[in-house]
């Protein structure tokens, strides 16, 4: 099958410019908080992935089907409807530790590898940072690159 050209790839747009251009003041503030958390957890500078995703690190994946590509290891998108956090390491293994953290997080919804939060005030930021760290550790273990 070979390499698949992902629709969402890292770009050269500056993250600071993207955050500064967000139309909603609360989303700008929340994006700055999430960026600081991700930087603490990952030790990395972010990159823009596609037009609206802020990503930290990357990994190469390959499925049994032969489909392969590169994606961000973690990140977030300060979307209008909800903050979307990409906790890539949590959706498969859902360790008891992750389940316990999600139970303490506060108001949220989850998808396959996404955490949706309406506003940061709805969640416990310390628990959120622990979830980010758990996801980051799981991704580094699964994709040591």
Outline, from the CA principal axes?
A: globular
Q: Helix coverage percent of residues?
A: 25-40%
Average pLDDT, to the nearest integer? 89
Q: H/E order of the elements? A: HHEEEEHEEH
CATH class: Alpha Beta
Structural description of this entry:
The chain has one domain (about 15-140): Aspartate Aminotransferase, domain 1 (Alpha-Beta Complex), CATH 3.90.1150. It is of the alpha+beta class. A hairpin with a 3-residue loop joins strand 1 and strand 2 (about 55-60). It has helices spanning about 15-20, 25-40, 95-105, 125-140, and strands at about 45-50, 55-60, 70-80, 85, 110, 115. Helix 3 (about 95-105) packs antiparallel against helix 4 (about 125-140). It is about 35% helix and about 25% strand. It has a six-stranded antiparallel β-sheet with strand order 1-2-3-4-6-5.
Itemize the secondary structure elements and their pairings.
Elements: H1 15-20, H2 25-42, E1 47-49, E2 53-62, E3 68-78, E4 83-86, H3 96-105, E5 109-110, E6 114-117, H4 125-142
Antiparallel strand pairs: 1-2, 2-3, 3-4, 4-6, 5-6
Descriptive key words:
145 residues; alpha+beta; Aspartate Aminotransferase, domain 1; 6-stranded antiparallel β-sheet; 4 helices; 6 strands; globular; disordered N terminus
What is this entry, summarized?
This protein is of the alpha+beta class.
